[in-house]
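## Example pair
The file below holds two records. Each record gives the amino-acid sequence first, followed by its structure token line.
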Amino acid sequence: MKSPVAAGRVLNLTAEQMVSAIGISASRTFCPGAVTAGKLTNMKNTVDPWAGRMGAESALLARDGFSGPEHIIDGKEGLFAVFKHVQYKGQPATFDGEALVKDLPDSSKSHYRILDCGMKSFPIEALSHAPLTAMMKTVKEHKIQANDVKEIKVEVIARAADILGDPHKYRPDSKETADHSLPYCMAAGLVDGMVTPLQFKEERVLDKSLIPIMDKVKVVANEEFEALFPKFQPSRVTITTADGKSHATRVDVPKGDPRDPMTEDEIAVKFTALGGNVIGKDQCKKLQKFIMSMEGAEKLEGLFELTTKR
């Protein structure tokens, strides 16, 4: 629902056109959680951008007079009606239509949610960030080596345990599955001391030397954490070493969250790691400088030139 609204605001749609844009987008876009469950495919990478694209296209169609259903959410055979049979924690699902419009910004003094957006510090699934951060802190603080580890117990919310710790995630055979695998990310982070795009190259993902480390990772759901989510993303990682000692670290807010934001230097490191092999490290630096000062730019031609490989 967010993408047609955002695109509609950019296009200055009328209220009637905005309703159509939302109706058009919802009519042609539906994404079940299957794209991030079990063995993953290329669709995992495209489902969110695809929804964004559909939202933008829907707003353009509405602007040009194409109409969409007005009650796609709460009307007959709309989203609420279609999903009313769904069970949540043993109870029939309930829907709060008012929550969709509650606290929407209506003036320059309103709080805009975009300011609450975080930035991933690792190129992995969002719910993996807190446990990986906790493990890396523990390893660094206690100078733990991979060969010293007997077990890594990872406590997370139930959804994270289900998606990121299912059997497929213990034997990833592609980047798509590996970057949504807690066992793989924890094992690679422990052995390599980092988790960057390098850890998701095919030869590393298929490296059988990581299998014994992955098998030491035990992912379990912690009911205590459920009440804290989504305001927090709590995780506790307990590393037990061969000498019988245990070291535990809990992280509620991962690095990159607005409450613990990445620094400009940290963003630059990630930016270069992702774009260095595409446009070159020197051009990455120029592009980074342009983006970080873009509000003072009179024209954007320079931005587009810098995003093109020379």
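Second record, same layout:
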Amino acid sequence: MAFAASIEDFSSDYMDSGERALVVAHPVFPVCVEWPALKDCGKHRLLDKQEMARGVHSRHFIRIFRPIESGETLFTTATVVSISKVRSGASEVIRFTTIDQNNNKLCESYMEIIYLGVELEGEGTTSSSVPFLQGKIDTSVVEATFCIPVREGLGNIYSECARIWNPIHCDHTAARSVGIGHPILHGTAVLAKAVSRLISEYQDGDSSGVCLIGVNFVGMVYMPSKLNVVVHLSNNIGVHFSIFTEESKQVVKNGYLGWNSDGICENPDAWSLA
């Protein structure tokens, strides 16, 4: 409930426990249970504080096998599956796997972090099983555009409700110390707000069939502001989208939201291996 409220999605799926006395989680909610595992994973990195501070959330992929429900006990593991050199520094890809108390897999996510200006010693290691969307869609095609507002202080609200804490999203001094001048909104909050709007527009507000979410983060979102979610292609299994600021600066590319009636989506035409 708190996560959905922080992104101003008041769908009854997330807010009304009803006769079953439970609510389901927003499709982007897995990032919340992944955060403690990510922090624990960070304890084993051979990076100093300055190098860690250069880490930028670059890409994210979520596969949902079934919605998370209230009252469940969840177990999340984080595994580093790829470390490689990239033009801007070093790339690290982490796989998160979340299961329930009966050992059923609920979701699996891949998160890429780029450490800007950090050199990788050795050749690193890459995995052919990392699923990130490639740029196959003609982004010059605009099928629809939806505006989503970002209010002042949303970084503070989202931090507390999602329990994902980084001072650059809340504290002006912390933001200035890393050269961005003003707090920026979490990339996952931007993604969650866009996903909510797309579910409203294309699934009549029903998130139960959502099974794939993918995105590349390419820009910062300041608060307050307005964002434009641009849909390039939609069909019966999902939508491809980008996100821009009011000033037409792109903040998200290669966005994809997929669904099907079975809750497990296989879409080889839309997804390819990085």
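Notes on the second record: The first strand starts at residue 55 and ends at 64. The chain has one domain: 2-259.
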